[in-house]
Model the fold of this input.
Amino acid sequence: MHILLVEDDLLLADGIIHALKKERLTVNHVVLGGEALNHINVEPPDILILDLGLPDIDGFELLKSIRKNNVTLPVLILTARDMLDDKLCGLDSGADDYMTKPFELKELIARIRVLVRRISSFNSNEIAIANVMLNTSSMSTTINGENLHVSKREYMLLRTLMENANAILSKENLEQKLYSWGEEIASNTIEVHIHNLRKKLPDGFIQTIHGMGYIVKK
Ligand code: CA
Done:
């Protein structure tokens, strides 16, 4: 399990690295957002621990850039409390977890363990509902085993709906999800993508709940 730590507070970083190594996790540490992007491109980590207040790039902007290419990388955000209030709505689903500074190292490790377990148990990386299957590591979609061509945005929407099967997701929920992945959103973006997805999927797979949103039932 390989963890990338992006943190410009060297004392804090040292403490985190020491604690993670005791858990037998491999840690790489970078100070700048730019270094983090390079590192992720060359050697994608299994988990990212990201400080929001970085010297070169705002951590939230960095997360948006990362999400453009890497939808699934688990990200734990470290942030000062006052910054959290500003960023919380935007963070939404772009991050998998967050901790406000100051925090107990023990708690950070416990949360990393949860992410590690989640990665291990999701290793099959497949979500199947009826005859539609998504593979979240290859980002591919199949129907009855036949490859289905969907755009990146369509994939993200379909994945969000399937991961939240049996829940009604509003247009705003879905917009926020695309936004957290670094996508620009026009006012009719969601309707257009849902329309196009429906042409490719079995009849009734994505249902509209009038005035509320969309649902995939399993
Ligand atoms: Ca900082």
